[in-house]
Design brief:
17% strand, single chain, 461 residues, 14 strands, alpha+beta, four-stranded mixed β-sheet, Histidine-containing Protein, Chain: A
């Protein structure tokens, strides 16, 4: 009676196939072992079994899809237990990947893509057909491409025409170099703008993005590879704007001295005092310590003499200073100076300083004339100018013997030679030498001087 009631209840509930229905008969009969094992067997049957018709339906579905595409016509499909195996051939690797991607969209366990690429002539027929189709499409776009090319060419011509009007840009720019830079920027901008407009007309903006992206990467690589050239170019731009010197100026750049001939876009050209051309990269000039001797016409020279430690060094300094002041090429303002700077091993060192006007006096000649003048004045006043090392000569016939009136060998008193008074000395030639200036002028008159970036209208910093 109990079994009949349970069966009726299960029929009404619609769960006659449930594990509970399988367990109830055993429960009703009192078979405890059957009640424990029946659910496990039922679960195993549901998880392991797959409807064979589902595999067949999936295979037919995939074959129907592949049959609709010419590239997939050579593909075979087999499905077993939810595993899809694709075999056969396709004309390209792209088609192979697409076929596998389509199969993965269904409820499958996995997809084994064993499709091989068809390299036979018959397999490449579709590629040739696609190529011919693209050529036909390109031929149809020829009129549009022609219009885009004409518009781009018109933009290029307008840009180059605008860039060629350098006399206009020189009005707004400080020098020729900046005018050339503005013209180059206009030309480059016109090229980019023409390319963008032309590709936009034909609908190839994606290609433009790829080209510009590649150009950016190439530009970064070239920037690192040509770092020195870029640094030199930027230094040329800054020097042309700042102008630390002008043409014909006498400058000292680090340890390189000469007169400025011109400033180019790559280097600064100097004429050394030996008459040689010296080209210094602008990147070096921009970072160097520059001494411009021409900006201030007044220039000081100095030299050091030593007097005997037993002599009055202060009186020697005053005499030397007065001697410098009496020289015609020494300026009165600033006044010459004499400084006691050091007590040496056998002498007191005095440094003499004098100022000259470089427009009228050569610096090297002035120093060369001032040293013997002060030395002779000190010696004429009886001041000794000792040396650390002495050499004794006993030959009276020697032209370098510093004594005169030698009477005999028995010790007659020798009298020291007196230096010729300064008044008897011929006036020293201290006029500036102009041979280097003449060489610089010849270089300035050459055709290469047209590329000079120095502008006398701009202030010197």
């Amino acid at each position: 009676m109990l079994r009949l009631v349970a069966a009726c209840w299960l029929a009404l509930a619609g769960v006659a196939a449930s594990p509970l229905a399988a367990a109830l008969p055993a429960l009703a009969t009192g078979d405890g072992e059957a009640a424990q094992t029946a659910p496990a067997e039922a679960d195993g049957a549901l998880s392991d079994e797959r409807d064979p018709a589902a595999d067949s339906r999936l295979a037919n579905r995939l074959r129907g899809i592949y049959d609709q595409v010419d590239e997939f016509s050579g593909i075979d499909v087999a499905v077993s237990q939810g595993v899809v195996r694709l075999t056969g051939s396709a004309p390209s690797q792209e088609a192979i990947d697409r076929a596998g991607a389509i199969a993965t969209r269904f409820d499958v366990v996995t997809v084994e893509n064993d499709i091989a690429r068809d390299t036979s002539l018959s397999g490449t027929a579709s590629i040739v057909t696609a190529l011919l189709d693209r050529l036909r499409d390109a031929a149809k776009m020829l009129p549009l491409i022609g219009v885009a090319a004409l518009i781009g060419l018109a933009i290029l011509l307008a840009g180059y025409l605008l860039a060629s009007l350098k006399f206009i840009w020189r009005i707004f720019t400080p020098n020729r170099f900046m005018a050339d830079l503005v013209a180059s920027a206009i030309r480059f901008a016109s090229i980019i703008f023409a390319l963008v407009i032309a590709l936009d007309i034909i609908g190839a903006t994606a290609l433009l993005g790829a080209v510009l992206g590649g150009a950016g990467v190439i530009g970064i690589a070239l920037g690192f590879a040509m770092r020195d050239m870029v640094e030199n170019y930027v230094a040329s731009l800054m020097l042309s704007l700042r102008q630390p010197f002008r043409a014909r100026d006498l400058v000292l750049i680090d340890d390189m001295e000469g007169r400025v001939v011109r400033l180019t876009s790559r280097a600064t050209v100097l004429m050394t005092l030996d008459g040689n051309h010296l080209r210094i990269p602008n990147s070096t000039v921009f970072k160097a310590v520059i001494v411009n001797f021409t900006r201030n016409p007044q220039r000081r020279f100095e030299f050091t003499l030593g007097v005997d430690a037993d002599d009055d060094s202060t009186a020697a300094a005053d005499l030397g200073r007065d001697t410098l002041a009496g020289l015609p090429f020494i300026l009165d303002d600033p006044v010459p100076e004499a400084r006691i700077v050091e007590v040496g091993d056998s002498a007191v060192m005095i440094r003499f300083l004098g100022w000259i006007d470089q427009r009228e006096t050569d610096w090297h000649k002035a120093q060369s004339a001032a040293i013997p003048a002060v030395k002779n004045a000190l010696e004429g006043a009886g001041f000794g100018l000792p040396e650390p090392i002495y050499r004794l000569r006993f030959d009276p016939r020697s032209a370098s013997l510093p004594f005169e009136n030698i009477a005999d060998r028995d010790g007659v008193e020798w009298r020291a030679k007196k230096p010729r008074p300064a008044a008897e000395a011929e006036p020293a030639d201290v006029a500036p030498n102009d041979e280097i200036e003449q060489m610089v002028e010849e270089e300035r008159d050459s055709p290469e001087a047209k590329r000079d970036l120095l502008d006398h209208r701009r202030p010197v910093e």
